[in-house]
Amino acid sequence: MDLGISGKWALVxxxxxxxxxxxxxxxxxxxxxxxxxxxxxxxxxxxxxRIADETxxxxxxxxCDITTESGRAEALAAAPQVDILVNNAGGPPxxxxxNFTRDxxxxxxxxNMLTPIELIKATVDAMIExxxxxxxxxxxxxxKAPIDILGLSNGARSGLTGFVAGIARKTxxxxxxxxxxxxxxxxxxxxxxxxxxxxxxxxxxxxEAARRRVQSVPAGRLGDPLEFGQACAYLCSAQAGxxxxxxxxxxxxxxxxxx
Length: 259
Ligand code: NAD
Fold this sequence. Notes:
47% of the residues lie in helices and 14% in strands. With 259 residues, the protein is an alpha/beta fold. It is globular. The protein binds nicotinamide-adenine-dinucleotide. Residues 14-20, 37-40, 65-67, 88-91, 138, 140-141, 183, 185-186, 188-191 line the site of nicotinamide-adenine-dinucleotide.
């Protein structure tokens, strides 16, 4: 199926690796030009070149911290226009909520709630004027099924989800949709690091820790960032103009509820 986004411009945040990279690559394979962002220039430039070489689209890398005002301004300035916005940033650290300080909370809310809101604010009116816009926020399965040690993530991302639920019903009349993608456990550096840490804490091998990690996933495996990216590409497609305000869980069946 042709997703109808060839020649559009997408800003994909936190996209040198992992889920952001999967989204960027999938959009590029559909012909969308990209501005990709991450903090480390070397890794980002390499990722941008890989995508451009494979797909032939224009890919502009912008190395900056997307959670800062100057970083967001740089990323936005690199795109001639933003037709598609994929919001993403690193997730907050785990821990016991008793140990989280006010600064920890401010950092989490800044990265995982206010940064996407600022980027939506900066792009949505021009999308409305052009009568096309697709905004996808990468959140977490923890929004639907909170994970006790991820209190910072549960809280900050639920705030974003509530905000999006309100405005997504306003923008859709102008063919501008806003949806959230909720990853379960995907095979990314972040998850590999947590598996390594769990192995160390339990005194077991990393293979054993990985086996235990997928035990709670009915699919029996970790998700592939590219299958996540393909779902993102669908939500950004011309065909998805009637889908807005949704929370799309991609977790290999891990969430056990009917709805
Ligand atoms: P990852 O560590 O594999 O990749 C993170 C990417 O974000 C990298 O490109 C990194 O350079 C970039 N990045 C991080 N902070 C940034 C910042 N402030 N500014 C710009 N770029 C930044 O991580 P991932 O597994 O792809 O996770 C992406 C998001 O999804 C995170 O918020 C994570 O908490 C969330 N998430 C991931 C999973 C999973 O299974 N991988 C599950 C639930 C939620």
